[in-house]
Amino acid sequence: MFLHYIDLGWRSLRRTPTVSFLMVLAIALGIGITMTSLSVYHMMSMDPIEQKSDRLFHPQLQTMDDGNDTWSEDNLPFQLTYQDAQHLAQAPVGRYKAAMLRTGFTLHMENSDVRPFIQNARATHADFFNLFDLPFIYGSAWTQEQADDASPVVVISEALNDKLFGGRNSVGEQFFLDDTAFRVVGVVAPFTTHMKFYDVNNGAFRDHENLYIPFSLIAVMDIDTWGNSNGWKFENIRSMKDKRQSEIFWLQFWVQLDDDAAVKQYGEYLMGYMAEQQKSGRFNRENLQFGLRNVNDWLDYRNVVSEDNEVLVALSFMFLAVCLANILGLLLAKFMRRAPEVGVRRALGASKRQVFLQHIVEVSMLGLIGGLLGIALAQLGLWGVRLTQEYYSPLATMDMTMLLSAPVIAIAACVIAGMYPAWLVCRTTPATYLKTQ
Amino acid sequence: MLEIKPIINALRRSKVGAVLLLIQIAITTAIVSNAAFIIQDRMTYLQQDTGYPEQDIFSLSVMTYGKDRDLSQQFEEDENMLRNLPGVVDAAITNAVPLSGSGSASGMGLKPAPEPGRSVRAGYLMADDHMLNTLGVTLSEGRNFYPDDVIVTQDPNKLPKVAIATRTFADEAFPEGDGLGKMMYIGDRPFKIIGIVDKMKGPWLKDDRPDNVIIFPYIKAETYQHIIIRTEPGQRAAVMQTIEDKMLAAYDKRVITNVIAMDEDKRQYNASDTLMLRMLMVLIVVLVAITALGIFGLTLFNISKRTRQIGTRRALGARKSDIIRYFMVENTLICAGGLLLGCTAAILMGQQLLQRFSLPALEMQYVAGTALMVLVMTLLAVIFPARRAAQISPSVATRSI
Amino acid sequence: MLTMKNVSKVYQTEMVQTHALRDFDLEVKEGEFIAVTGPSGSGKTTFLNIAGMLEPFSSGQYMLDDVNVGALSDNQRADLRNQKIGFIFQGFNLIPDLNLYENVEVPLRYRGIKAAERKKRIEACLEQVGLASRAKHLPQQLSGGQQQRVAIARALAGEPRFLLADEPTGNLDSLMARQVMELLEQINRDGATIVMVTHDPELARRAPRNIQIVDGQVADLTLYQGVARQTDRAVVGG
User: Fold this and answer.
1) Where do the ABC transporter domain residues begin and end (chain C) (predicted)?
2) What is the pTM of this model?
3) A81 & A32 share domain
4) How far is the C-alpha of B109 from the C-alpha of B103, rounded, in Å?
5) What φ, ψ does residue C63 adopt, rounded to 5°?
6) Alpha-carbon span A7 to A219, nearest angstrom
7) Which of A292-301, B41-50, B281-290, C220-229 has the lowest mean pLDDT?
8) How many domains does chain C have?
9) With an 8 Å Cβ cutoff, is A114 touching chain B?
10) Is position A51 within any domain?
11) Inter-axis angle of helices C144-157 and C174-189, to 10 degrees?
């Protein structure tokens, strides 16, 4: 019977090509516009590390004197001071933990065709790769010993390995970062997400760094951040050493806590640490306060999804509603004109349910066609988005979920719009239309 | 004579069609007025005067890795070389590029730290006496830096004693408008405002104080440095093309990146606003088209349902213009209802947007303007089907269908 | 087979109540061929619609094969209609986008009959009305008489025991009307019960039993043949 309804629906659509075209166009436009903004929204709000986003935490410490404000909604600083980051990295709590900051160097090689270029880098602890599940293609992370000695060793991404070494096993090879020779100890697989969730300070959708160096080099090489530094009081910073000892917030920190007990224990540890710091006179506060958010809470807190995009998603769904009202009107006209035929079918033994289903199948087909066309329009829209804003390029695409939800949303919308006309047409007394034609 | 009462009765009998039309008009009005307002807001932002001749300025970044030369001296040579290039008006080394979205800001105190006192936040640029000319801005008060004011040093203890500020900044610090010549403090270090520029935007157009800018006569050569260059009108592209080679020819143990025109830099910084603008424009255009189409379709449907009735009216002596007027009045009535609902919805929606997002409050003239536009569009969408209805022959009344 | 007792139908509009049928009594036996006549607006079509369960009735009792129709749900009525009743309309009411084969198929589809069985029955029915060769044609390609024969084939396809015909020849010329009538008589001989509403006194006379409906009430003409002949002239034809 279902196939029969599809056949009937198809004939009906073909019988009134103009109306069908208008309806399909209305759905396609509605879906196209909705899917364009929804796809960007979906990519922006996607869980970047599903398998463990609820176990990775970014701690925040309130180390400002009372009466000072920062930009966050709960007045906790987004980043950590060097001394706190350094301390937490050594702390006995937490499964994996890594402090980190974004920096950069000129990368150049001896005897190479590759012209010197500027390369973003991340200075971090070796646990970084464990925290974020980055498998090694060649070699491994640096050893504890290399970290302790602040050895000039480096882990590079697969992309950089391709660029510098043509993709071969480059472990043991050397290149210069500024004027220091570094030795490659590992080549790591790329992140699967476009979102730089571990450091959203300069935009959550910037490219991941391609180069990782031991955290201990920050002190040895006087490395400064290429990201944000925020101070809250006047400090006379004359050198990088001053900055490392200052109250300036400029580092990110992530820790893996495997269960609630670990989270609780970590919170207690943070409180204890702050109490101890306060005793030593570092800051002057009435109440101690810390933050410990997992990945998704953190992204929410940092407003990773742009407000503009949320406004657009809301507006496009309203737009879809207008398209639906339109379709509803057209369907009403179309179905009511067909009432005599329905009368005949009812007289020949069709139940209300069968008539209703027949019409719902027809509008679903309308939805499917409109949805597919809508995907095409959304691709056009996303192309426009990529053209306007390169930064959104990795986001302005439709993944499998979006490709599948487009027709689902379209069909659902059409069924909602078609419900009333279909109900109206199946409800009419068949006798009304039988006498005259 | 407008036959409003019979029209209302007819509408009450075909409720669904009228309600659908009403809903469409209401939602359209709500969306369009808010979207138009956001568009206008972003347009004003994007087209604001930055104070710079953006089309003649470009910037580049230099990352030096060679350690065999003195950086300060190297940069001095670079500046001389650049200033003498054909087509170049002036060039300056700086710590940050205006409009680029990256730079430094700090609170400037009215009292030396640690004395308590108000401080005013400003984005600051550090460059020499060529900076004003390079940026193409002119002083409205005071004087430019003398070459003697400029401190070229690697010693963090040596700090500048004077500064040039924007009018906005000086007025915020000294509301009486007498900022010129006053002392201010970075921490405990004093400096004097010796010049005032009327208009000059800082590194971040989206900062809550984009007009608070200060220039210090100070060059602390770093391995990562920016250079701003202003060219003769029309010469910029040519200069930009050869700049990397020229810089590397002067010294090659460095990397030249981010060679970017100032207007392009601004465009990239504002890309998300441009995107919003475009998306909203597409949305409005398509929405209005769809609604017009909807009104058109529903009127056609109404007319086809009432062919006989129209024929009867014609047979009873109605003129063509009466028929047209009937449909026009009918649609105007529905439209008025929709607009009433739509304007209310628009205002509520504006309040929601204001509350939930950092958008300014909706201005009423946008609602009024949109309502007028929707009304005109509604009437236009009805005229054609109504004229068609007027063509219906009186004879259909006598023929049975 | 069909028994109506005190059946009434009232149409209620905003202002007025119209009694289409009042205290309508009728019994139809298996195998009968009844012609229903009566003036315009007397309730003929209302009676037929109620008999065919296309319309609910206001009060009274209607039994069809010992089933109390008044107690059935809409879906049950649809099933019963589908199994027991065939309709033939004055306007033929063929579905314009379906070809003849598909038109005849409609009631069989709703009954859920398998495709192979459907094919067999449809071909047989079209054969019976002499249109087997035109199965792929669309209704508008046929003459009125041919269309009505298709409608009859469609009514027969479900092998109904009860055939309701509303002015089956009303839109046909007299030659075609006679052919259709002969077809109906043949069907009646094959065992189906037929109730036919008609304006045409000649056709009515060919039916073994005549009923006249006046003002929503029945007058069984077979009981007063002589009188009926007289009144016939007076009322029929309006």
Assistant:
1) 2-238
2) 0.80
3) no
4) 19
5) -110, 130
6) 74
7) C220-229
8) 1
9) no
10) no
11) 20
